[in-house]
Amino acid sequence: MNKWLFAAISGIIQGLAEFLPISSSGHLSLFQNFFGMEDIDMTFDIMLHLGTLAAVFIVYRKDIFPLFPAFFSLLGKIFKGKFKLNEATVSERLVLMVIIATIPLVAIVPFTDYVDLIGKSNIAIGCILIFNGVMLFVSDRLSSGNVNGENIKPRNAIIAGIFQMFAVLPGLSRSGSTITGGLTQGFNREYAVKFSFIMSIPAILGAAVTDIPNVLEGSVRSADILPFIFGTLVAFASGIGTMKLLIYISRKSNFKIFSIYCVLVGILIIILQLTGIKFA
């Protein structure tokens, strides 16, 4: 496949599936597997994720940029022994909750090689996509609560973080999992979406950092640099549009269409794999 076309398709898949509750890792793995491109460049994979990370900063800039001074303010209060959760600002509380929600990801680090193996199995991804669809169906049955940035508690954040931990599995949507986790904790739907996207920042950065040793072991060919940059820009642009779409959906509708999509795609993938069909 043409490098530029491959980069563009990868960017579109990343931008759409990273934020829609349908799993970017699962769709990227399927795309690579069925087109015989299992060995995607690790550098490009990181760049795609950084492209969607930049999209989060753009869409939620009013919420994110105040977090930087809030982080240092929070540290100062903790070290001085003056921090009280019920007296924290909304930004300080959000910083603390994102940190707490990120902690469960540490438990998955020893199992990253096994996760990579799952990404090579189309049947495994298909089964997980079906599970993802069922999870989204259940999430639509959860009532929107009244937990938001002013009253979110550590136990709410840790549960959302546990849901995010399991979302490292290809086929299980990170946004779908964390939004569902938030809804189980009484989040209102719009805040569940916002918290899901903001808590993705340390998760994406952490994944990029852990992959740096693998990147350093290889090298990027000069002919690939421009296609990689192009794909990253596509992921960034499509990510912004997708985030705004999901925010709108969270206000006006539900995840039924995504639930049906994941189940149908999961079944189709299993059938294609069992019949030996590939498109390479």
Q: How does this model look, in words?
A:
With 280 residues, the protein is mainly α. The chain has one domain (3-274). Helices cover 72% and strands 0% of the residues. The protein has helices at 3-17, 24-34, 42-59, 61-64, 67-79, 90-102, 112-118, 122-139, 154-166, 174-184, 189-198, 200-217, 222-252, 256-274. Helix 11 packs antiparallel against helix 13. The longest helix is centred in the last third of the chain and has 31 residues, at 222-252.
Structural topology:
Layout: H1 3-17, H2 24-34, H3 42-59, H4 61-64, H5 67-79, H6 90-102, H7 112-118, H8 122-139, H9 154-166, H10 174-184, H11 189-198, H12 200-217, H13 222-252, H14 256-274
Helix pairs in contact: 1-2, 1-3, 1-13, 2-8, 3-12, 3-13, 5-6, 6-9, 8-10, 8-14, 9-10, 10-11, 11-13
Describe the main β-sheet briefly: none
Q: Please, how many helices?
A: 14
Spatial gap, N to C terminus: 9 Å
The chain-level mean pLDDT equals: 88
Q: Characterize the overall form.
A: globular
- Let me know the number of strands: 0
Rg of Cα set: 19 Å
Low-confidence spans? none
Q: Name the helicity range.
A: over 70%
Kindly give the count of domains: 1
Order of helices and strands: HHHHHHHHHHHHHH
Q: Approximately what portion of the residues adopt beta-strand conformation? A: under 5%
Structural class label:
mainly alpha
List the keywords.
280 residues, mainly alpha, 14 helices, 72% helix, globular
